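INSTRUCTION: Work out how this chain folds

Token vocabulary: learned, describes local backbone geometry

RECORD BEGINS BELOW THIS LINE
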Amino acid sequence: MLSEVASRLKITIVGGSIPERCGDKLYNTCCVFGTDGKLKAKHRKIHLFDIDIPGKITFMESKTLTAGETPTVVDTDVGRIGIGICYDIRFTELAMIYAARGAHLICYPGAFNMTTGPLHWELSQRARFLLNDSYMLQLVRLLEILEPVMWLGVTQPL
């Protein structure tokens, strides 16, 4: 679907994130489609989010997902883009790698919970921008996925 839209509208699309099965492993993956509709890059989330705050939230991505291993930088018609997913934003080194590799824009589609998200979502965005002199693109909105967990920022096409 994203491929068709990118081709029809002649735009670059950074998809949100989707589960990707590769052999016996499951990854949280973001796909980037070029103006011709072809897959230009695929980023597998590097930093998995495990949290257990008694009485508030327990969420263990590592029980289901496998961490990606490679930073993703893709050249597009709109410039060089670095890709991260959600919790990847908390790790300064990843953004520094992207800036060193010439990324002018860093995209982090994500869904942060309402327990920890408000504490660091905006702050992390500003920090990555200031430290790396790169534009940041993120989607921020509230989404209730599972009662009573509220999520800040939802992964979907940007």
